[in-house]
UniProtKB/TrEMBL annotation:
It comes from Neobacillus sedimentimangrovi. NCBIfam families: 2A0604s01, PRK13024.1-1, secD, transloc_SecF. Belongs to the SecD/SecF family. SecD subfamily. Belongs to the SecD/SecF family. SecF subfamily. It is a multi-pass membrane protein. InterPro entries: SecD, SecD/SecF_arch_bac, SecD/SecF_bac, SecD/SecF_CS, SecD_1st, SecD_SecF_C, SecD_SecF_C_bact, SecDF_P1_head. Residues 64-120 form the Protein translocase subunit SecDF P1 domain. This is Multifunctional fusion protein.
Amino acid sequence: MVKRSRIVAFFLILVLLGSTMGITIQGILNNMKLGLDLQGGFEVLYEVQPAKKGQKIDKEVLASTAEALDKRINVLGVSEPSIQIEGDNRIRVQLAGVEDQNEAREILSTQANLTFRDANDRLMMDGTDLKEGGAKQTFDENGNPSVTLTLKSADKFRKVTEEIVNMNPNVLVIWMDFEEGKDSFKAEVTKENPKYLSAPTVREVFNQNTVSIVGNFTAEEAKTLASLLNAGALPVKLKEVYSTSVGAKFGEQALDKTILAGIIGIAIIYLFMLVYYRFPGFIATVTLSIYIYLVLLIFDWMNGVLTLPGIAALILGVGMAVDANIITYERIKEEIKVGKSIKSAFKAGSKNSFSSILDANLTTILAAVVLFYYGTSSVKGFATMLLVSILLSFVTAVLLSRILLALWVNSGFLNKKFGWFGVKKSEIKDIAENYDTLDLPTRWDKLDFVKTRKWFFIISGTLIALGVVLITVFRLNLSIDFSSGTRIEVLSDKPLTTEKVDNAFEQLNIETDDIVISGENKEMASARLKGVLSKEQIAELKSAFKSEFGHEPNVSTVSPTVGKELAKNAFIALLIASIGIILYTTIRFEWAMAIAAILSLLHDAFFMVAFFSMTRLEVDLTFIAAVLTIVGYSINDTIVTFDRMRENLHKKKRLKTNQDIAEVLNVSIRQTLGRSVNTVLTVLITVVALIFFGSESIRNFSIALFVGLVAGVYSSICIAGPLWYVFKTRELKKKGVIKTVKEKRRYSDQPQV
């Protein structure tokens, strides 16, 4: 009898969840904070240096500097800036959505140390003599913009003017950021645009507490100067060691393209699940939709900043989330094929698939945690989204999908409806035959992975040797992230040519290493410079290119010091992730499987590196993120196979010959080959969508993932398993017989002889 109440409960849950999602999703999207790579803005890493001899840079100095920077950002009117103290002498500032990046850069790094000096550069007064909030933008008697300063003491100003009125020349020079030993009034007074703010002549003694700074200011410049003086001088000097800026138009295009890629990739996954897994596939599409909603909701609750790699992680997360469904549904199909009822098959399949899903997710979490710890800015965004995605995929794909499917299974409606699970009647054994799922025939039964192992080793060995030669000869095309320098990305309203972009650089006396034209209509160009542009050069370049091409370019700079640090951190991250996976796999499985797994992962990582060396694609920070993602994800298939091998080893109880080991390996790979291909296929769908439809900014990242996934499915099937066979046969040779099940000790109260 069909229990209709359970089916009604299913639809009520769907209506409740669907209506909640429909009502709240727009608010979540509107409230979502976009990173600077999606809405424009810039990020800069400052090295904090002493402003005076003997000054120590300690935690208090860093904190006061961060506070001073925050006051200056308030002048810009940027909402929710990010200011982070890093290490012992660095501060990272991220300003998303800032309209005038040149102004922001100038306001942040200008020390704003106001001084009043005589014609001989002798200090008379400084910023400490200024009354708090005493700078205001005003207009002089001719209607020109000026800045009026209110001083703390009229008496001190009287004494200063008394001294200067009798000097020759009798000028009070007002400086901003005067550098001892470098700047002088005598040198600057001859220049058309002197460095000092103004130098009024003092013809009489002033007994007042106000001073006017009159110069060639615009109203906006005078207002900014007043705000800057009110914010106060920085207690230190700031040196840019890393910076990246994104034009608003770049961010808008990147967002639109990546969302389109996500929609296409996710739609294809939904279609695949419906066609291949039928009704359970429909349940998967429902839970995946809920999963996407929950990821965005949690990210909003976390007050997280959504970056371009973060969206890529969300899209990848859909492909990874469906893996748990595939593993579960394949186990349910196996249970149905041995003759069990739908209810029994669902219960057994759900139970038996849990350990595989848990192990696979934990290894990916490990890689994501390492990425978050060693990553910077957008890479941290990717790692955060990846962590949230993995945890929520476990909740939705493992728990929610089983609850929803259980309502139908326990209602009795699906009894005898094996076709709804994608199983043909001809494939189902009679329960009386006492068939075990481990004995089921597969479409791959003719494949012998032990016999062909030497061919696999030869193919991989040859490709690795070729890769070593390629890397030795061509090396890697390192981005400025690792080699230092400047990267400039240009966006134009009209098609670009190499000559046109090169001419624009020549007019600014900037020599480029190479210019690459891209985009559907050749509207984008990128160039690299060996040197690190100064903030003045960046400001000039941005203004000139905006006038020439219609949009502000993206400009990123990395100092040699930071480049070396990023390279070192990338190596450490890869090493820690590898060690973690070895330890985890050893604890959960055995040492032979752990070594085989890590060798296959290093095999995958090397192929990614060799491919990028051969194709001359640029290796940047997102490439490292891709490698670590593959290290965490690629082991999924290996673990699914090892999990089945563990079951077959328990069934075998003892390995007495090499043939026993070969049988366990071959049977295990054959039984899991279908789900291994399907799980990788779903992630590949999203990656291919990102390559063809996503933003150019993460194209290399997507290509790296594609190469890693293809290498990963190959190594999981053809390298990891055969390597385990080699290790196991050597162990057998030493031990004679290998016990694969720990026998419980039997206790007896009878006398022992």
